[in-house]
Amino acid sequence: MKLCFLVEEQYRHDGMPVEVIGRLTAWGHQVDVVRPGGSLLRMTETVRTGAHDAWVLKTVSGGPGLTLLEAAASAGMTTVNDARSIRGVRDKALAAAIGRGRGLPLPPTYAAARPELLAEIPESEYPLVVKPADGSSGRGVHLVPTPDQLAATLTLLAGETMLIAQPYVANSGVDIKVYSVAGELYATERRSPLHPDHAVRERRVRLSAEVAAIAARVGLVYGLDLYGVDVVLGPDGPVVVDVNDFPSFRQVPDAAARVARAVLALARAGTATVPGDALEAHPAPGVLATAEGRAALPRPQIPAQVAAAVGKTG
């Protein structure tokens, strides 16, 4: 197969996607790498129908790669993940609205195009977590304990075009990161960016049925096949605090090979899943609407009780 990877500058030497590209090349596939942030792009020539079997995006949120991926999708080419789905999670304000509207356990979310507007949030909502709406990799995430500390935090976030704020969910200082590789779920725990002094060794952990059901539903709601979900265990149960497309897949066993196989299966099957108004009409992440797609993709490794829980939440 012939694939095009869009790779941002900061990921040029990162294991994900470099090792995936290496594995695909070793298997005899042709992989072209485009650096959307470091190249002059002649858009009318870069995106050509039929030039590649699929386009794969590994870029920072807010970078130019998504524009190029959307151009490829508009020309009818397969993209991994689906370009519309990526837009739905990279804008965290939009992601919150979609997720809460579809019943996912996300915190209430405020959005402000002008930072000073966050001062209107009631004191009862504090402590707050404030971050850029297009942030990634923990960039610019701040815990604001009281209203009188908001101004100092906003100074640190000067220049951001949109900010979101969410009431802080009390937790142990440990985030659970669930990775989905075309339906196969893996969980790790790691230190929360809000608790940098908390000593936590990143490691794989057992995935509870409750968290697995939430992670699987995230893929259904946003229409993603390769994604990560950040979850904290609050006093009222698991809460989703972030969703990202094509994450690092750290601690996933043989991650490069698993992701490479998923990319090939999605490329062969065609257009990936997309979100819509009727969740029941969606195929599950990694399961395409066509018979060929269903046969080509790996079966989701989700326990039966988790699958039942996903169905009950719809």
Detailed description of the structure:
The protein is an alpha+beta fold and 314 residues long. 30% of the residues lie in helices and 23% in strands. The protein has helices spanning 15-26, 43-46, 65-74, 83-90, 92-101, 150-156, 209-222, 255-269, 291-296, 304-312, and strands at 2-7, 30-34, 54-58, 79-80, 110-112, 128-132, 142-144, 163-167, 174-181, 184-191, 203-205, 226-234, 237-245. The two termini are 37 Å apart. The relative contact order is 0.14.
Strand order of the largest sheet: 11-10-9-12-13
Classify the oligomer.
Answer: single chain
Instruction: Quickly count the helices.
Output: 10
Q: Separation of termini? A: 37 Å
**What is the makeup of the main sheet?**
5 strands, antiparallel
The succession of helices and strands, N to C, reads EHEHEHEHHEEEHEEEEHEEHHH
Which residue ranges are poorly predicted, with pLDDT under 50 across at least 5 consecutive positions?
272-314
User: Whole-number average pLDDT?
Assistant: 84
What global shape is seen? globular
Q: In percent terms, what proportion of residues is strand? A: 15-25%
Please estimate the helix content: 25-40%
Structural class: alpha+beta
Total number of beta strands: 13
